[in-house]
Design brief:
The complex is a heterodimer of chains A (about 375) and B (about 300). Chain A is α/β, with parallel strands linked by helices and about 375 residues long. Chain A contains twelve helices and 14 strands. Chain A has two domains: about 120 residues, Rossmann fold, CATH 3.40.50; about 260 residues, Dihydrodipicolinate Reductase, domain 2. Helix content of chain A is about 40%, strand content about 20%. Chain A starts with a strand and ends with a helix. The chains are: A alpha/beta (about 375), B alpha/beta (about 300). At the A-B interface, helix 1, helix 2 and helix 8 of A face helix 1, helix 4 and helix 7 of B.
Chain lengths: ~375, ~300
């Protein structure tokens, strides 16, 4: 039996309390939130011990582990406190807004032998895990490009101010939506080395982004494109889709199904053949002991609990893995904030007043050359 | 708001209930298929045509969410009582994505406030420094139920369901009193039987029994492949054989993973299932499901 405390009772936090509290190997010995109203209702009706202060909970709740589901900007300091108190930590995504902090905390946890996990639950969705298995098995040969998309109906009009509307507090579609497909890209294809053409664009929000677009450059000449929009009313809920092209085929997947076109039957794992293969969530999903809102939420909690019980530091979505995604996010932020490199349109236009003729073309070429050199200098600095 | 039609006691549920997932782009198998369905049923007359087909095949109970568009179906049925003399609704509330998307923006309390008919109620409660009384929680819960039930005024709603995301969230939290409040309000205000949709029947049944809510109506996945049957297929089979509850089987085809005849044959072999809820988009499919049920589940 492990003793767990949970802090942050927002949408994710509440669902974590429900799932963790239902786990047969867990006793919830503290829940903590700054909102007195919600905390008092839960305390009164569930009987779970409540704390309005994180330090107090750490000191008094006799914990083995904590689940941290507070606004993203608070993750770093709270995770540090928990690790310093010798607690295993499950933290909501994104892990830290500053990737240096992510790396520090990953190292700290490792040095103390503490189990860590970040709530990138898509890695526990049967269909996305199947894609990982196919890619690792070489079913589509060498991966060349990925397209990672997420669309949903979160911000559909101008609205009031909460932490989720402020970029500095970890709000916006980049941290909330894009982090998930990015995390999958990193899982399938490794570390992002550079981001280009990144756009963080508000649609309705005043202080943060509602759309994210970026081209990512990974190792081995792999590229990925990210397309995110959380102001899309055509979606009933967040829907994430991954498409991967390789030298020997193509895979596309959403949470319901995997469609794989495999060119070479000899490379096909058991249950797959050359040509089209379709696998549905019903056959890709393992049953969970308790279901609230998707098997993946329960499965990730169960994985964390099992790792804590076994003292196993390695595992899907540990801090080291989440730090990779934090670095990807930071690359996109830096790229989007950089001075845009533009080609002089007038110089390229034959109908432009000046310059004209061959001289004009030569001038245009020189402008592009300068721009490209400047771009590579920038990329080298990152 | 109380249903104007008398509900006979004890109320017998139809064996086949018609569900509404197909109308709202919910498909557990394929997002492409879900979108195609959302397009097809964009016009409410397409929804009504399928409901009419179900009605004419003898499937008179519509188990539906409280999605805004259901209000149009309610209006239509209210306006044509002679066309639908047997029409019965089993509303399930709340329409979860409405709350889930609102929670991402506003947090749990903000989301609740947004859907309360009078947000001032919660404001007043939240401003108060006193600890919260049961009547406050009751007040909030019953206001939310009443606001979701408005669209069904004057229609027959003998069973009113709490949706699975809410049931299972409360179940995990151990917020057992909420079930009692729901039970009291649904019976008292609407003269209806409270129903619970869940993915965790074994755990829920234990809690409801402990609360003294006897012989509850529980709708959950019951299918041959054990899809989304938390507690395991054997656990469910044992419950059906030995415990007292009114079971409604949903997802009997496991989103298409089981061929129809095989799926229905298996479900009909399980003991003590009172009803099956299913979705379909064409009269042919409705008729074939009905035929299979008549074949494998002969009337006693």
């Amino acid at each position: 039996m492990i003793r767990v405390g949970l802090v942050g009772l927002g949408k994710m936090g509440l669902s974590h309390v429900s799932i963790v509290n239902a786990h047969p190997d867990v006793q919830v010995t503290g829940i903590c939130d700054a909102t007195g109203y919600l905390l008092s209702v839960l305390g009164k009706y569930t009987g779970l011990p409540t704390y309005d202060d994180f330090d107090k909970m750490i000191a008094k709740a006799d914990l083995d582990a904590v689940v941290i589901a507070t606004p993203s900007a608070m993750h770093g300091p709270m995770v540090r406190k928990a690790l310093e108190a010798g607690l295993h930590v499950f933290c909501e995504k994104p892990f830290c807004l500053d990737p240096e902090e992510s790396e520090e905390l990953a190292a700290l946890a490792r040095s103390r032998g503490l189990v860590t996990q970040v709530g990138y639950h898509y890695r526990y969705v049967g269909a996305f895990a199947e894609v990982k298995r196919l890619v690792d098995a070489g079913a589509i040969g060498k991966v060349t490009h990925l397209l990672a998309e997420a669309y949903g109906p979160v911000v559909l009009k101008p609205q009031g101010s909460t932490w989720r509307t402020k970029k500095t507090l970890g709000g916006g579609s980049l941290y909330d939506y894009a982090a998930h497909p990015l995390n999958l890209v990193n899982w399938y294809a490794g570390e992002t080395r550079r981001a280009g053409g990144s756009v963080l664009k508000p649609v309705f929000s005043r202080e943060t982004d509602d759309e994210v677009f970026s081209t990512l450059f990974l190792d081995d000449d792999v590229t990925a494109q990210l397309s995110i929009n959380w102001s899309d009313e055509s979606q009933r809920k967040m829907s994430t889709k991954i498409t991967i092209w390789g030298t020997q085929g193509r895979i596309s997947a959403d949470r319901q199904e995997v469609q794989a076109y495999l060119r070479d039957g000899d490379l096909a794992p058991a249950g797959y053949t050359a040509g089209w293969n379709v696998k549905y969530t019903t056959e890709l999903t393992d049953e969970v002991w308790f279901y609230v809102r998707g098997e993946e939420y329960s499965a990730q909690v169960d994985a964390f609990v099992s790792r804590v019980e076994a003292g196993k530091l390695e595992g899907r979505n540990n801090f080291d893995a989440a730090a990779v995604t934090d670095r990807s996010i930071a690359l996109i932020v830096a790229d989007a904030a950089g001075t845009p490199t533009q080609v002089n349109a007038a110089a390229l236009s034959p109908s432009g007043a000046e310059p004209e003729g061959l001289a004009g073309v030569a001038a245009g070429a020189r402008t592009i050359g300068r721009s490209v050199r400047s771009l590579f200098r920038k990329a080298g600095r990152r | 708001m109380t249903s104007t039609l008398e509900t006979p006691k004890p109320f017998t549920m139809d064996r086949l209930l018609f569900g509404d997932n197909q109308f709202f782009g919910v498909n557990h198998m394929s997002e492409e298929k879900a979108r195609a369905q959302a397009m097809r049923f964009q016009d409410i007359s397409a929804v009504q045509a399928v409901l009419d087909a179900a009605y004419d095949e003898g499937v008179h109970t519509f188990m539906c969410t409280t999605h805004d568009r259901i209000a149009l179906v309610c209006d239509h049925v209210r306006a044509n009582p002679d066309r639908y003399p047997e029409m019965t609704f089993f509303p399930g509330m709340p329409y979860a994505h409405k709350y889930a998307n609102a929670m991402t923006e506003d947090g749990p309390l903000g989301a609740i406030k947004r859907f309360l008919p009078d947000g001032g109620f919660l404001d007043a409660a939240m401003r108060g420094t006193r600890s919260l009384a049961r009547k406050d929680i009751e007040g909030i819960v019953t206001l939310l139920i009443d606001s979701e039930m408005k669209m069904f005024a004057g229609l027959r709603t003998p069973v009113i369901f709490l949706q699975n995301v809410v049931v299972d969230l409360l179940l995990g939290l151990g917020f057992d009193d909420a079930f009692r409040i729901f039970d009291e309000h649904v019976r008292g205000r609407y003269g209806a039987e409270p129903g619970y949709i869940t993915m965790n029947t074994p755990k829920l049944l234990d809690v409801l029994e402990r609360l003294g809510l006897e012989n509850p109506v529980i709708c959950s996945n019951i299918n041959k492949v054990g899809f989304r049957m938390s507690g395991g297929i054997e656990g469910y089979q044992q419950l059906l054989a030995t415990r007292q509850f009114r079971a409604i089987a949903m997802s009997v085809f496991a989103s298409g993973a089981i061929p129809p005849a095989e799926a229905i044959e298996w479900v009909c072999e399980q003991p003590n299932i009172e009803s099956i809820v299913f979705g379909a988009s064409s009269r042919a499919n409705i008729a074939s499901t009905k035929r299979l049920v008549d074949q494998y589940w002969p009337t006693a």
